[in-house]
Amino acid sequence: MIISIEQAKTYLKLEGTDSTDEDTLIQSLITTAENLCDDILRFKISELELVPEIIKTSILFSVAFLFENRETANYDELLKSLKILLSSVRLEMF
Question: Which ranges in 5-52 belong to alpha helices (H)?
Fold first, then answer.
C-alpha cells in the first residue's frame, strides 16, 4: 500500500480524532484509488522502487473525491482529473 490510513486521514483533515469508525471505509477507498491510478498509469505502482509525489497526490486526491462524494460521485470527472494529473508518468502503451 502506497498511502497509509494516517496519511489519508491527514489529507481528509480527520487527524486529531481518535475515532477509527471510518478506517475500514478509508482503507477501501485507498485500495480503490490505487487501482484506479494503476489502470490510468498502465503499470502497477507497487512495482516502483520510488513512488513519485504526483502519484501519491493523485491517490490522495482520489481518496478525498470518493470520500466526499460517496453518495453522488461523478466518476468521469474523477477519471479525467486523474488522467491529467498522471499524464507525465503514464505509459503510452501497455
Answer: 5-11, 23-41
Neighbours of 83 (CB within 10 A): 13
Q: Which domain holds residue 73?
A: 5-86
Q: Is the pLDDT of residue 18 over 80?
A: no
Locate 8 and state its grid cell. 489519508
Q: Is residue 94 part of a domain?
A: no
All cell numbers assigned to 21: 469508525
Enter the DSSP assignment of 51: -
Q: What amino acid occupies position 18?
A: D
Which pLDDT band holds residue 16 (cuts at 50, 70, 90)?
A: low
Q: Is residue 40 part of a domain?
A: yes
Give domain status of residue 71, yes or no.
yes
Residue 91 within any structural domain of the chain:
no
The reported pTM is: 0.91
User: For residues 38 and 45, is the Cβ–Cβ distance under 8 A?
Assistant: yes
Q: Would you state the pLDDT for residue 92?
A: 85
